[in-house]
Amino acid sequence: MIGLAGSIERRNGVSLWRQIADRILQGIASGDFLENAALPPEVMLAARYGVNRHTVRSAIAALVQEGVLKAEQGRGTFVLSRKRLSYPIGARTRFSTGLQGQTTERHIALLSSSTEPASRRIAEALGIAKGAAVIRLETRGEADGHPVSRATTWFDAERFTGIDSAMAETGSITASLKRFGINDYLRHSTVLSARHADADDLAALDLQPGAIVLVTVAVNVTLDGQPIQFAESRFPAERVELRLSAL
Amino acid sequence: MIGLAGSIERRNGVSLWRQIADRILQGIASGDFLENAALPPEVMLAARYGVNRHTVRSAIAALVQEGVLKAEQGRGTFVLSRKRLSYPIGARTRFSTGLQGQTTERHIALLSSSTEPASRRIAEALGIAKGAAVIRLETRGEADGHPVSRATTWFDAERFTGIDSAMAETGSITASLKRFGINDYLRHSTVLSARHADADDLAALDLQPGAIVLVTVAVNVTLDGQPIQFAESRFPAERVELRLSAL
DNA sequence: TATAGTTGTCTATATCAATAGACAAATTTC
DNA sequence: GAAATTTGTCTATTGATATAGACAACTATA
Q1: What is the structure's pLDDT at B3?
Q2: What letter does residue B144 receive in the DSSP assignment?
């Protein structure tokens, strides 16, 4: 975003056209290339990045395919408007309230649910015995019809029997938890990382292969500190940034 | 980390061997492949990922080059131990204190410094006039001799004249700010994103091309709310995770 | 010591990625 | 209408990527 653009690296397993496509995306994100304006001509981009014009064309073709750019013969190549959502993370983060003002419609879609024995990691996070039954929800957050998050969530199956159908009905974790007498809860811990999206995320988030996802692993607790929810969420880095607020 | 592994994607600009190398790295991070133990044999990995054995060998060769794996003819390929640092982010995050217990030695190296006019973004963050002089520091955080962060930091040049030499001497932002009468400060805001490392980050962080960096953009303020520092930090996602604490 | 299992090396072939040059087609500007 | 600018298409060449098969070299173990 800030700072000098690096140069292109060769024979590292990532093709030049993909690297240049990423650079153009960066340029758009950083305001280097303005939305709704023309990109510099292909010949100029080729000179700037030190590659052949055809290589630049491959990069542009990929971005046209992704819906980021639009090329018009004789006129130029234009940046379509697409802004990044700023997703707040804090002690009282809620999916729908956090995106107010940035979107007009948002909800969480339940993709699938299942009951399974708790792994060691999940058991520790939820404070239950390893192997105890937990409910796993696979969900997708959507804002204005576009996917903005993909999460896997675990609940203690004993305490939250039926939370899967509650989620399917309400489209909201907060509303579902209310049915179990939980009117307020806090985010206890969050660990953040990033990686390339796997095939599942690619499909669910409508991403192109090679896309990056931000990953948060969080534990939510009741006001008196009882863990109720363990979740791993994936956010497409090209469409979402995480804004850390009071945790 | 959690969830089913996705399948390999073809002709997306990222070579198969690079994708498989990334998958193996993920497998190590998630505990799928244990440290100090043998990886499954090449033929088995090839079957699992649906590619030729030679392609798996290319991926392994790259990871051997990166120091992640060690191959021994006739015996197998072994995972070398290398754990991810967990870097805390919160209101009082300090580089050295945050990593206590995980490392024995850490400091910040000053790579370069310069004075430049403030861009609009930096001016707004620091509460000064656009174009006013700011000091830019390029630094690298090191723990046990390995680079763990790469940051670009801006200070108001008028108020913090000489902070570059202070940084070079002390190797610490906290200690440098003390010389300007600032004994305590808070992290006011943090915005988080992720992207591929650029050439500069690759070199400074000793990464292989295609690596992912976590990016934080933060503003630090004095106790009475005056902004003093604007910083963009990059963390290698393969070696560092960010643990969000009280902000 | 013989055998099975594993990594290392070699040859061969097909496809993808990148460069190079030339010219066509569409748009804007003079 | 002519010229300049820009994207689109075509041919050709080179090197990297991926697959396939065979066999050598080394290790562990029965």
Answers
A1: 32
A2: T
Residue A22's Cβ-side half-sphere holds a number of Cα atoms within 13 Å equal to: 28
What ipTM was predicted for this assembly?
A: 0.59
Question: Is B16-79 in CATH node 1.10.10.10?
Answer: yes
What are the extents of the domains in chain A? 16-79, 85-244
Q: What is the dihedral of CA A104, B217, A151, A205, to 10 degrees?
A: 70
CA nearest to B157, candidates B109, B108, B118: B118
Q: Which of A153, A132, A128 is nearest to A226 (CA)?
A: A128
Task: Indicate whether A101 pLDDT > 60.
Answer: yes
CATH of B85-244, one of 3.30.1330.30, 3.80.10.10, 3.50.50.60, 3.40.1410.10: 3.40.1410.10
CA–CA separation, B235 vs A192, rounded Å? 11
Rounded CA gap, B170 and B127, in Å?
A: 27
User: Would the CB atoms of B247 and A243 count as touching at under 8 Å?
Assistant: no
The residue among A195, A217, A234, A238 with the most chain B CBs within 10 A of its CB, best to mutate, is A195
Asked if B95 and B148 count as a contact pair (C-beta separation under 8 A), the reply is no
DSSP state of B241: E
Q: Is the CB of B181 under 7 A from strand D?
A: no
Choose the closest CB to A194 out of B9, B194, B208.
Answer: B194
A60, closest nucleotide (Cα–C1'): D7
Indicate the angle between helix axes B53-65 and B16-29, nearest 10 degrees: 60
pLDDT over threshold 50, residue A1: no
All residues at 6 or more sequence positions from A226 whose CB lies less than 8 Å from its CB, including other chains: A127
Task: Label residue A28 by pLDDT band (50, 70, 90).
Answer: confident
d(CA B199, CA B201) in angstroms, rounded, equals 5
pLDDT digits (tens, 9 = 90+) for A58-96: 999 888 887 788 999 999 999 987 667 778 887 666 665
Q: Which residue is nearest to nucleotide C15 (CA to C1')?
A: B11
Q: Which of B12, B209, B215 has the CB atom closest to A210's CB atom?
A: B12
